[in-house]
Design goal:
about 180 residues; alpha+beta; rod-shaped
């Protein structure tokens, strides 16, 4: 009869050989950035497709003589296999070429791609996400032509900005940024 220590030693030795073969062959056990899944080669870097941002809507909710209340919504789609963590959308709003203001949705984490805050949005690959934000335009009397356009709902909007996102993978993806510019 064989000594049980020899059997255990053989099993452990077998595991060590398998792990060493995988480690030195350029193959990863789990590739969580593509559809390949298990045992994908790491010779080619993971291709991270940019997220797609569309201006879903910009709507004047209410206007009085002192302020205008506006709601903006963005539609974010993810063409990647893995979900994406959207850290922040920073945008500027213009009406007929005049800058109204700059706002942001979310929070840009620590430098270097670390998501330090929990104020981020998970964008899944199977359905778009709609993010809404509201802002107020105060009437100080210096922009009567813009105020007339707001009151008559004939504003010529332009929205520009940046979105910062990462793959929800600890092993690939890095920090990514995409710029956008919409006219409505």
């Amino acid at each position: 009869m064989l000594n049980p220590r020899i059997i255990v030693g053989g099993v452990i030795g077998g595991f060590v050989i398998v792990i060493a073969a995988i480690a030195f062959s350029g193959t990863s056990i789990i590739d969580d950035t593509s559809e390949q899944g298990l045992l994908a080669t790491s010779d080619s870097p993971s291709e991270i497709l940019p997220i797609i941002i569309d201006l879903e809507n910009i709507e004047i909710l209410d206007v009085d003589e002192r302020a205008a209340y506006v709601e903006i919504s963005f539609k974010i789609s993810n063409p990647n296999y893995k979900s994406v963590l959207l850290e922040m959308i920073r945008y500027s709003v213009y009406e007929d070429g005049t800058k109204i203001g700059t706002k942001s949705i979310g929070d840009r984490g620590a430098p270097g791609g670390m998501v330090a805050a929990s104020n981020y949005y998970t964008i899944l690959n199977d359905r778009p996400t709609i993010l809404k934000d509201e802002f107020t335009i105060n009437n100080d009397g210096s922009i009567p032509e813009i105020w007339t356009a707001l009151e008559t709902d004939t504003a010529n909007w332009r929205i520009t900005g940046d979105a910062f996102y990462n793959l929800s993978s600890m092993t690939a993806g890095g920090e990514n940024e995409i710029k956008f510019d919409f006219v409505r």
